[in-house]
Structure to design on (189 residues):
């Protein structure tokens, strides 16, 4: 995505979950018609989709959401890992940093931990190769289910007018080096 405003609009859609061009224009201090043009380009490029419509003062407001794409597909990842392992490591670092940034933003805003509407878990496990594949498949199903939950929520919000609740789900299934002692099994309480 080369256009800087289009990139900012896509980021706003990712962060908000659901937004109209007017809301994004207000947030970015840009003209609504310009933002609307770029949102339509994002839809055409499969980076966003129309998620809901709502009648506002006699007109129909269109609400869009980002279609998050993987940073890199598996076959491209294998090629990158072979040809440029330092860049592959950098991309993983960016993804992990984005997850940490989500937690930090929520903490700094006084949201995370302010009530009981949150979950953070860590599950160290020892499995065989099939168990590892099952865990990866479970993560894929969870990603699809979260997308479905977001779609259903958008439909309910378009009918009820309820405010959006931005959220992030961070999940990773990674192989780990062998632990040196039983004391390393869990994080400190």
């Amino acid at each position: 995505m080369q256009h800087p405003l289009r990139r900012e609009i896509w980021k706003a859609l990712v962060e908000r979950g659901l937004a109209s061009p007017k809301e994004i224009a207000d947030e970015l201090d840009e003209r609504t018609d310009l933002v609307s043009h770029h949102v339509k380009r994002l839809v055409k490029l499969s980076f966003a989709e129309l998620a809901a419509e709502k009648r506002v003062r006699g007109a129909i407001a269109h609400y869009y959401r980002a279609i998050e794409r993987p940073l890199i597909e598996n076959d491209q990842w294998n090629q990158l890992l072979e040809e440029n392992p330092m860049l592959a490591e950098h991309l993983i670092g960016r993804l992990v940093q984005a997850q940490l940034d989500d937690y930090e933003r929520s903490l700094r805003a006084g949201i995370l931990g302010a009530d009981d509407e949150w979950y953070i878990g860590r599950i160290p496990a020892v499995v065989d190769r099939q168990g590892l594949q099952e865990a990866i498949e479970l993560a894929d199903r969870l990603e699809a289910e979260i997308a479905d939950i977001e779609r259903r929520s958008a439909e309910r919000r378009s009918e009820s007018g309820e405010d959006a609740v931005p959220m992030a789900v961070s999940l990773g299934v990674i192989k780990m080096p062998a632990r040196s002692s039983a004391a390393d099994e869990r994080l400190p309480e």
Q: What stands out?
A: Helices lie at 4-16, 21-28, 32-44, 74-83, 85-108, 129-160. The mean pLDDT is 84.
